[in-house]
Amino acid sequence: MVVIEHQEGLYRGEKKPLATVPLQDAPRTAPPRAAAASAQVYPMHFANPGLNSRLPATLPQGPWRIRWQKPLGQHESPLSILRSADRIVVRFATSWLLFDNEGKAAGRGSVGPGAIYLDASPGLLYVPVQADILEGRRLADASLMFQTSISHGSTFVFPLIARSGNRIVVVGTEIERFSHTPRPATESTIEFKEFGKPFAVDEMGMLNSVTRGGTLRVNSPALLAAVQGDAIRFAVPDALASISTDLEVRSACAAKFTPKLMSVDEAGSQYLIVESGGRTSLWAVAPDCKRFINLALDPRYGSLVAPPVIGYDHRIYLVSSSYALAVSPEGKVLWERETLATAAGAGISVDDKLLVSAGDTLAVLPDTGDPQILARFSGDRLLTYPVLTAHNQILVASKQNLYCLEPGR
């Protein structure tokens, strides 16, 4: 049974079972094409708070060339790239580097166990630096603007940090504490902080313009979450739920499954990779607890390198290290193919081009025919997903270099 508990400040409420209804299978009406985001930025891992890897631009036709490349000079391998109009952030396991549009170094910083979020409007980067502190760093020069506390223990990691309106949502999942008497992980938390305007800090640099906040505790450490509009969608073993950013439950569904990966679309439908009934499957579930896709996946596909990629036309793309497949909005496999090399990541453009970084190549996987190779990086292996920008550029990184590509020979 899933149990939730609300907390405001230091005051914890009553633990209550999550009220669920059984998941039901039902087809859905074909949804209209999704609109492209008006703010053409790439603020977080997997593109946006829905984690659906939708790139915020169309892909120009023709050949591509390297505009510039910059050595990263790090011992760690890059994990992701974030992008605003005039800044690029390369994320590593314990650090991050800041660049301008021409690849000039603009700053650096450290990061604790968790996600980071680029908030372009105020020009800030939200960075967890330890178990109970979130920093706001200026994108201009990486300088510290504020710190604020977050209500998690010392054994939490933060798989999701995202902005929704004037609120920052921080998701924490507990990991096992190793000591002379190991303590198993027991819970996850979803916390929001509502920021007043303008940001105000005290003499110690702590943010004191937080106007509201709260925490929802869930009795499972295996929680996946994504944000869509003013709703947070989460999945734990045997339950899916939609809650408001006030942390009030809107809907919840029950079924027997273990969630592995999740993304959401603009309507709030959840696309999940689950273990259920002894097999791995793709599920798609609408907010009203109607499951419209239940597709068993061939074991040879292996583990995916990203949550389900959701096209603007609502096709679903699944990309593992060695395979890619496209699934129709109704749940039929349209095509499958081996990738050119070990895939590091993928994204879907506004004009429905699946862009994949694999080995030393950056390629488009079309519906038919051979992959269209956009660029090849001889002797270098790409480690991040590609970021397509509104300036008709693509950013991607290997262990050694950050690359910026542009159309042209």
Query: Which stretches are low in confidence, meaning pLDDT under 50 for 5 or more residues running?
Result: none
**What is Rg?**
21 Å
Shape: globular
Strand content: over 45%
What is CATH's topology name?
A: Methylamine Dehydrogenase, Chain H
Total number of beta strands: 37
Distance between the termini: 59 Å
* Percent of residues in helices: under 10%
Biggest sheet, in brief?
A: 7 strands, antiparallel
The CATH H-level homologous superfamily = YVTN repeat-like/Quinoprotein amine dehydrogenase
Structure annotation, total helices: 0
Number of domains: 1
Structural class: mainly beta
Q: What does the model show?
A:
This protein is mostly beta strands. It has a single domain (48-407), classed as YVTN repeat-like/Quinoprotein amine dehydrogenase (Methylamine Dehydrogenase, Chain H, 7 Propeller). The protein is 0% helix and 49% strand. The strands form 8 sheets. Strands 1, 2, 3, 15, 16, 17 and 18 form a 7-stranded antiparallel beta sheet that branches. A hairpin with a 4-residue loop joins β11 and β12 (124-130).
